[in-house]
Amino acid sequence: MNDTLNIIQTTQEVADRFNELAQQEKWFEIQDELFADDAKSIEPPASPYFKNAEGKTAIRAKGEEFLKHVTAAHELKTSGPIVTGNHFAVGRTTDIDVNGFGRVRIDQIMLYEVKDGKIISEQFFY
């Protein structure tokens, strides 16, 4: 019998891998590897920068669209994750130049929910 075992990562394991990739600024790799296909990306209600997105493809498109407008990066920093239950949170500082906005510094908390070893939602507080 040749059964394939599907090993589901714990929230801590997902958070650890997320941190490994985030420290290298590999955000699309995080999405490709760790996000569920139907993940949700939730922005603050009055965000001047982004809109919510649903589904891995839409989340990636949102990131790609944003990167088209970034002309310089001054500081990009992500804290280590704090894990509790099926959630983890990180702090993120982004200091960049953006077409149409000028220099923008965003200090935020990024909250992730994990189910069955995949990130099913990300929510940003800034």
Please, could you describe this protein's structure?
- The chain has 126 residues and is of the alpha+beta class.
- 26% of the residues lie in helices and 44% in strands.
- It is built from three helices and seven strands.
- It has helices at residues 11-22, 27-34, 56-68, and strands at residues 35-42, 53-54, 70-78, 82-84, 87-98, 102-115, 118-125.
- Strands 1, 2, 3, 4, 5, 6 and 7 form a seven-stranded mixed β-sheet that branches.
- A hairpin with a 2-residue loop joins strand 4 (82-84) and strand 5.
- Helix 1 (11-22) runs antiparallel to helix 2.
- The N and C termini lie far apart (52 Å).
Q: What descriptors fit this protein?
A:
26% helix, Nuclear Transport Factor 2, Chain: A, alpha+beta, seven-stranded mixed sheet
Helix-strand layout with pairing:
Blueprint: H1 11-22, H2 27-34, E1 35-42, E2 53-54, H3 56-68, E3 70-78, E4 82-84, E5 87-98, E6 102-115, E7 118-125
Parallel strand pairs: 1-7
Antiparallel strand pairs: 1-2, 3-5, 4-5, 5-6, 6-7
Helix pairs in contact: 1-2
Pfam families: SnoaL_5 (PF20409)
Protein name: Nuclear transport factor 2 family protein
Domain SnoaL-like: 10-126
